[in-house]
Structure formats: C-alpha cells, structure tokens
Fold this sequence. Notes:
alpha/beta, two-stranded antiparallel ribbon, 10 helices
Amino acid sequence: MQFTGKRYQDYSSFIKSxxxxxxxxISLDIxxxxxxxxxxxGHGGCTYCNNNTFNPDxxxxxxxxxxxxxxxxxxFSKKYKTQKYLAYFQAYTNTYADFESLKKMYNEALxxxxxxxxxxxxxxxCISNEIIDYLSFLSxxxxxxxxxxxxxxxxxxxKNVNRCHTFEETKTTFELCKDKGFYLGAHLIIGLxxxxxKELLNHxxxxxxxxxxxxxxxxxxxxxxxxxxxxxxxxxxxxxxxxSEDYIEFITNFIGFLRPDIVIERFISExxxxxxxxxxWGGLKNFEIVAKIDKKLIEKNTWQGKFxxxxx
Length: 312
C-alpha cells in the first residue's frame, strides 16, 4: 500500500492519480423510484431513507439531465475555473428503468460539454447483464463507476430496515460486475439498530471480500419524514447513535480491518439541519471530522489494513 499523505486511501488522491486534474461530481435527480417503494418488492422504502437529505438545490426531477448538469457546472465553475465533471445519478435507484431509457439518459449526460464520466448509484437487486454490458462498453471511452447500496452485511439488519434485498444478493451482484472495465463502489451505514460493535467491525471484513474499488461510510442519522423517525420517537432507547467522539474512535478501528487498496470516499454524510433529528454533533463539518480522524489515526499509530487478513 502506498500512502497518500494519509493513513488510508483517500478519494481526492484517487481522483488526482486517475485524472491528473480536479474533477467534480454533479448530482442528478431523474425522478427514479425504488422497488421497495412502488410495491414491486415492498412499500415505504428503507426505514432510514429520505432522499432530500443529499440532493443539492439544482437537483429537481422536473429539470432535464442537461439542465441539471449545466446548472451544476455553472455553480462549480465559479469556484474552480478549469475542471471536468462526473454526472452523478444519485437519488433513489438509478438503474431502475427499462434499458433503452437508461441508455438515453446516460448518453444525454455524457454529451454535455465537460462531462467525462458517470457515477451511478443503485441497488444490488436492480441490475441486469444488459446494463452491465452497456456500462462496460461505455467504460472503454469514459470513466464509469457503479455504486451499490450495501448498507449492512448483516441479513437480519437488512430485513429490519426494509431493505428488501439480502447480502447474499449483494455478493452475487458484485461477482457479476467485476472485471467489466468500470469501477465498483459500495455504501455502508454504520450503526443501524441492533448491530453490536463486533458486528459493525465485521462489516469491514465482509466488505473487503467484495471486488470493490471505493467505499462510502456514514453514521446512522435519524431524519425527518422517514419511517425511522417515527420508530425513534416511539422507542429511542433501541437506537445506539454515535457521538462524534465515539464515531471517530470506532472508525479508526474499523479501517484497520479494511482491505488496504479500497479507496475511502467519505466517512460521514451531512444531513441538512432542518431535516436532522439525531444525533446532534454540534454542527461539525465533514472536513472537521476528517481532520479528527487523521489525528486519531496518528495518535493510535494505526492505518488502513493494519489488521486485515487475506484468507484467500
């Protein structure tokens, strides 16, 4: 493992080494649904979910892909004069449509000047060989990253949060997608109800067995207009939410068990104040948490992969 100035593989260094320049993601909301919202697999969605927690102002499904990208480019170009962009299909399940519609949307994004690739967020149970083959085709000329919401490696947890897919399905999907020419990412939520610290650390072990390139982590947050908000109000003692100090302590242990080559894209997500119910971290920003994690890793003399054991 080659350190990048940090004690883990950080996303900024990955982008720089991949492109040699600054590249900015622009989030898109195309109005996709989800199979456990529309009744295909379930109703009500995942219990923690409210997609408004991560959609920028320019993301409105009433706007075209071109419009959303142009507004995003206008916004970011004021800060950075020369850069390229990745179209980030973010909200809900961005492979959950018929194949021809998906092709049209992906190509519309790639035809916008300055856009050099796609990042597509989806679920492990919403992918097909047809989509995989097409993304493989696109990856010959463009940067393509396919990110799956894994959320937990614990089957009981996935059932409890109404995820409507299993971890076994996740493993099967990653096997289908590996070695296809595009990057693979995973999302994990740290601290879902009922999971012990031992089980949380085991997520690092299990996720490291998957052929992933990037990993997004974030602590469980209770947000308004989610099923979990109602559950929390009724029975808050069932939720063991992290304080910022406890989370930093835990994450610096967690990454020690993580495969050394996995790029860690994020450690937390910031929910807008008007939507966040708990936990209250006093307004700490992402960069402040990262700085504290960096400092704690040095204090503990630990690093990504310190405790990783390749059992293959």
